[in-house]
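Sanity check

After download, print the first record. It should look like this:
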Amino acid sequence: MKFGKSTKLGAAMLMSLGLILTGCGTADKPASQPAPKGNDQQASAPAPAPAPAPAPVKLPKVNIMVGGLEKIIYLPAKLTESLGYFKEEGLEVELTSQASGVNAEQALIAGEVQGVVGFYDHTIDMQAKGKFLQEVVQLATNPGAKLMVTNKAKDQYKTLADLKGKNIGITSSGASSHFLVNYLVTKGGNSTKDFVPLAVGAGGTLVAAMEQGKVDIAWATQPTTALLEQRGIATTFVDMESQEGSKQTLGGTYPAPSLYMDADYVKKNPEVVQRLANAFVKTLRYMSTHKAEEIAEKLPKEYYAGDKDLYVKSLQASLAMFTTDGKMPAGGPEKVLEVLNISTPQLKDAKIDLSKTFTNEFVDKVKK
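Expected structure tokens:
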């Protein structure tokens, strides 16, 4: 029957459509996966990012004024820079030169610089005036200087008493050279009013003053003293350069060239001061283990003043004055105060606390 065939055909079509729909439904379902175990979950998790390294501490720049960079008594300042020890300590240090230590001291008090390489005696003198400065590295144990007299006038000078009434060359008024010339005049039985101090600076200006007859006698340090002798201009009258001569003249160890700073700065910036101490002590050790020729090679050629051999000779004569550890020698501050009390009468009434004028705290911590 026609009706029967149509019924069977429709049933077959419905069955085929059902299979197609069933197949589509199965394809839409995601394939089942086994649940990951706990350890597998941890292994597949990304590792945590490492914590960022702390940024290096930026230390403040340090300006150090030197009472004559080319003077051998202050050689450790430039040598420390040349050897790269400031940079090794992570410091940015700028060195500037000033003809006289007293000018450097004034720049420190004014806050223009953070440190001075000059004579320790300034810390005592300024405490009497209400300013607290503190030595943090002691570079040498004597002044490293001589009182030089012209060969033309040397017969006029037999003893310290002969300084009376004379024009005497010093670096500048109020400088350490002035303090010590005052002492020598007083030791000769005269007073500080019995001579005329003339500021002639150092180096070339001092040599010119002696050649031109402005002064017959003057304070000088190496390499100027060697130059005066080589040219036949002057000879030694008082020796405060050799260890023996200095002790004989001053009556004991007289700590002079040093690194000193404002006491408040030292207190507020101990890390900077420690690194400065590290750098300077490394230099002092270098100087104690190397020859003068080797040390000279590390310095600017202009320091030789055109005569390297003379410079090396001057340096060799001076090396014994430098410390090897940067420490203040025992009894040194007392000797300096004693000399200043004689040469600077106004200090006698001041109550000086020597313990506040220096510290070995930082040099004691420098690694051996």
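If your output differs, re-run the checksum step. Summary of this record's structure: Residues 2-28 form the longest helix (27 residues).
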